[in-house]
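FIELD: query
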Amino acid sequence: MPRAKWVAGVLTVALLGSGIGMLMNTEGARPTAATAADALPSRALGLSGHRRLVEQLEHSGQHASGKGSRPLRAAPIAPLRFSRPLRLHIPSLGVDLPLGRDAEEAAWDHDSPAPGSAGTAVVTAADLRLAELRRGLTIEIARADRRTAVFTVDRVSPGGITGRRQRPGRAQIRLVSGETTVLARLTGQRRTG
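FIELD: result
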């Protein structure tokens, strides 16, 4: 009887090893039709949906296909230290403007926190097509500390955003142009040289 337990143990380890090997070889690959060779280890390990999960993670932040789909939400990150904002960049609108306290095209309200710092920074700009922004798109603020704060749009309101509860300890930006207001939260940062 001990020999039968040993054989069962060896077979179990072999199945687990081949299942893990297949996972490592197919990570990031497009789903293929299931074959008899990979069906048993995947099912034995309870991993039949692993390819779908990998594909969802690879495409996070993009719109899923299908009716009524919504973009996946980017998670907020910890606020950055204070640093003076230098430029406003909105990739989806082709906007790249100098940003400061008294800039003509885009201005940071110095009574609000600096963009990327804890709290809600207020930036005003003339003649931007903010109504074209959608939830999930990004707004970038280049800062004097050689970091770019990346914000993800949460809300676009043609009549302004009022009554929105502030979340303590979070970095947000309120971008205003004309009658349109955009609220976005800090979701990333990168070095800019």
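FIELD: remark
Residues 18 and 37 are 10 Å apart (CA to CA).
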